[in-house]
Design brief:
mainly beta, rod-shaped
Length: 258
């Protein structure tokens, strides 16, 4: 016989073991030769109850080797037979929500490609990085540590008049300690005082003898006094060599958080 489209499967039907009805019970285990049997789908099954062919998914559902009737069976009901015809060719698309965890044995990692969305279709969240997580560097051969390579703190502030933070990360507060000196407090402390700091500063354009500004990061004016809880930024007018408030000040910090 000729077919239009995919040729139908030619597997012989599988007649499952007889099932004895239990009064007021809806779920039963399907077996073949005394071994649990799990059909691929309700769409490959024919179930007869009390001489009537049952409608798949509305009259009964399956989960693995368990068939569950829409209503509990009672004494006098007879499951005449359960016939299964598994396809040998072609494709059967499972109905929505019919594929359970027990049907998925394993999946090769090569099958997981592209961006993985969350269950609701949004961006996938909850993927945790460890302190040793790495990614390939630009050259492709070396690797770089993701966590240690990230800035742990940064700040952009106005240091004139009433000082104010323009934007920041991991910075809980700023204090105008003195002319040209600002104390920064971290939201989350550093684990030690061996971290590295880069500062920035800019004087007002057109200010006489300004010559720019220089920023130092210390805790108390002493180059050895770096704290784990914050930084002190000190600025001088390099033209006059005097302490100076600056309209653009900030720092960026690299190291290990506590």
């Amino acid at each position: 016989m000729s077919y239009i489209g995919t040729q139908q499967g030619t597997a012989a039907p599988v007649l499952l073991d007889a099932i004895t009805v239990v009064n007021n019970q809806a779920a039963y285990t399907m077996q073949k030769g005394g071994v649990n049997y799990s059909p691929a789908s309700t769409l490959v099954m024919q179930v007869s109850l009390n001489g009537i062919i049952q409608a798949p998914n509305s009259s009964y559902t399956i989960n693995g080797s368990t068939i569950t009737f829409a209503s509990a069976l009672v004494t006098g009901d007879v499951i005449d037979y359960i016939l299964v015809r598994e396809p040998t060719t072609g494709t059967i698309a499972p109905i929505d929500s019919s594929v359970t965890d027990s049907k998925i044995v394993s999946m090769a990692s090569s099958k997981l490609t592209g961006a993985l969305p969350a269950i609701d279709g949004s961006a996938l969240t909850g993927i945790a990085l460890t302190a040793s997580s790495t990614i390939p560097a630009e050259g492709g051969t070396a690797t770089t540590n993701i966590v240690q390579g990230l800035a742990k703190h940064w700040l952009n502030m106005n240091g004139t008049g009433t000082i104010a933070t323009r934007d920041s990360f991991n910075n809980s507060s700023i204090t105008d300690t003195n002319t040209g000196t600002y104390t920064l407090a971290f939201t989350n402390n550093m684990s030690n005082n061996d971290y590295a700091v880069a500062t920035m500063a800019r004087m007002h354009r057109g200010v006489s003898n300004s010559g720019g500004a220089n920023g130092l990061s210390t805790s108390d004016g002493d180059s050895d006094g770096i704290l784990t809880s914050g930084e002190v930024l000190s600025y001088i007018n390099v033209g006059t060599q005097s302490d100076a408030d600056v309209p653009l000040a900030g720092s960026i910090t690299f190291g290990d958080l506590a």
